């Protein structure tokens, strides 16, 4: 990573939103052939939140999370320059970010969606960092939001027990380069394994009678859980180590490990590979399941609201998922 930083960047506020409807593992066992015991021991999940209200979409959750982040530092929404919505479950394929821009009153912001599944929030932060560090923008709202309940096959016990709906948001502001808090990042993609986790567009068998073109629709989430698990446990520690190496930091310097909340076993296995103490792991997936792009900002907002993080703490954030994509950011809080 070459650096020519005109200004530094720091996260100045967080916010999050979850749907009110809770679905426990016991309730899941009335939908598919599963049990609380199986789900909890294999994943660490106890319950998840689902956006069940008619007409509600990712935009509503994302807007709520964004408004909380805006309120937390009382920033005038008109001073936001850019909104990045990391989501893989937009309610408009042309993008949902512009609706959020309108709903939060960020009249001067340009807004776009970013699709990178569970790595979306990490890639969103890195994208925002580029715009700030090169001096283009001063105030950026990054949102990670997903409602995968709308894309799950509710008869597939291998996937439907994992996911929940949520949104999390942060505001990143420019600052003096000496106070820059995004110390390092490392991003990867390996499209060779894209089929391990996807929501694929399926064409109909019969083409249009005159134009001879095929139309179709998006189907459900399909996942090779075992391969995604192996990928996460092998690649995430490597990504974290190379990100720390770039800034001459070691695992001992890390105060908090905030991984994409996919599976408690993945969190523990990554921590074990890194020899990082388990009390440094931020985990809230027992309450929310895997909320995709929302999982990292949701967990971050929770620990910030609980005042668990102190000034100057080093937080390692790592996302991983479909694509396959994965990435790490080292933050000084
Ligand atoms: O956001 C990133 C995306 N995703 C992930 O990070 C997921 C990564 N993968 C995982 O977390 C795990 O692979 C899962 C939790 C999805 C599955 O755990 P596993 O230990 O890999 O289980 P498995 O798929 O190998 O299934 C073991 C057994 C199978 O039965 P047989 O063939 O051994 O008889 C499955 O049919 O468990 C069965 N099974 C279930 N049983 C009860 C699969 N899902 C369920 C279920 N309840 N929900």
From TrEMBL:
Listed GO MF terms: 3-oxoacyl-[acyl-carrier-protein] synthase activity; beta-ketoacyl-acyl-carrier-protein synthase III activity
Reaction(s) catalysed (UniProt annotation): malonyl-[ACP] + acetyl-CoA + H(+) = 3-oxobutanoyl-[ACP] + CO2 + CoA
Chain ranges of the Beta-ketoacyl-[acyl-carrier-protein] synthase III C-terminal domain: 244-333
Enzyme Commission (EC) number: 2.3.1.180
SUPFAM superfamilies the record matches: Thiolase-like (SSF53901)
Keyword annotations from UniProtKB, A to Z: Acyltransferase, Chloroplast, Fatty acid biosynthesis, Fatty acid metabolism, Lipid biosynthesis, Lipid metabolism, Multifunctional enzyme, Plastid, Transferase
Protein's pathway: Lipid metabolism; fatty acid biosynthesis
Region: ACP-binding, residue numbers: 261-265
GO cellular component: a single term: chloroplast
Pfam family, any one: ACP_syn_III
GO biological process: fatty acid biosynthetic process
Domain Beta-ketoacyl-[acyl-carrier-protein] synthase III N-terminal: from-to ranges: 112-191
UniProt-listed InterPro entries: ACP_syn_III_C, ACP_syn_III_N, FabH, Thiolase-like
Localization per record: Plastid, Chloroplast
Catalytic residues (UniProt): 118, 260, 290
NCBIfam families: fabH, PRK09352.1
Free-text note regarding domains: The last Arg residue of the ACP-binding site is essential for the weak association between ACP/AcpP and FabH.
Function recorded in the entry: Catalyzes the condensation reaction of fatty acid synthesis by the addition to an acyl acceptor of two carbons from malonyl-ACP. Catalyzes the first condensation reaction which initiates fatty acid synthesis and may therefore play a role in governing the total rate of fatty acid production. Possesses both acetoacetyl-ACP synthase and acetyl transacylase activities. Its substrate specificity determines the biosynthesis of branched-chain and/or straight-chain of fatty acids. Catalyzes the condensation reaction of fatty acid synthesis by the addition to an acyl acceptor of two carbons from malonyl-ACP. KAS III catalyzes the first condensation reaction which initiates fatty acid synthesis and may therefore play a role in governing the total rate of fatty acid production. Possesses both acetoacetyl-ACP synthase and acetyl transacylase activities.
Subunit structure: Homodimer.
Protein family (similarity comment): Belongs to the thiolase-like superfamily. FabH family.
Record-given protein name: Beta-ketoacyl-[acyl-carrier-protein] synthase III
Organism per entry: Leptosiphonia brodiei
Gene behind the chain: fabH
